[in-house]
Amino acid sequence: MAPSATTTETVVRDPATDPVSLKLDSGPVEDDAQDPFATGGVPYEGMPKFDDLYKKRQWQLEHMAGAFRVFARKGFTEGAAGHISVRDPVDPDTFWINPYAKHFGMLKASDMVHVDEHGQVIGGARSPVNTAGFMIHSAIHKAHPRVNAACHTHSKFGKAWSSFGKPLEILSQDACNFYQNQAVYSRFGGVVMEKEEGERIAEAMGDARCVILQNHGLLTTGSTVDEAAYLFTLAERTCEVQMRIDATGRDKIIVDDEEAAYTAKFNANPTTLYTDFQPDYEYEVWMSNGEVCK
User: Where is the Class II aldolase/adducin N-terminal domain (predicted)?
Assistant: First the structure.
């Protein structure tokens, strides 16, 4: 459950005269809506639509590989830990995950491994997968049909913040992405080698797209791998920012609930989050001369 977004002082507003009043519309933006931040009379291309599910699968794998490259560039690697999974559009009871013990920065679309609900390799690259990764991600995909992608790494600031076992405060415009959109799994059951621990994590997640795993790190989900990956990078940065703010020891002003909900309506919808990931994805394609998509 997200923290209450109350300020340290009382602000009284008159809805009749204050443009930032309770008249703010915090209703949802539809998942397939045009990007609300694109203007100028020229539409932003946005997420492609597919009639051929096999083409959609390939597109997902390319963006999945791109997400790993982004995570590598941002320093989210930690030995063989960390994983991204993507639900298969052709067979939705199965999913794709990264091969075990291969550096994120070297991964290509063709390196991804297709596994069934029992963790058996059924396609893609012939490689073992991380047991803990399978236990966590399989439970999430099974419990939450809305989740098409999930990301988890042992990133530095996510690990540090997770040791407090509490949600992030809504301290900035970017943090509004996590307004009523985060959960805390407050039980550390050790490395996830049993399905029951994965199931407990999936249950704790609820409807949130970001889970803070106490003494472990961050996990994010989305309707696309782009959405989940961008939320992960943003959660990691938000953890860093919160700890830097806390280190000053000064009083904080938390964003009001009203403005937080209004900002989240535009910033935290799947369309905007997909778009926000594209600069990083396109940079990785450019840097690799397209190798990441092979």
Answer: 62-243
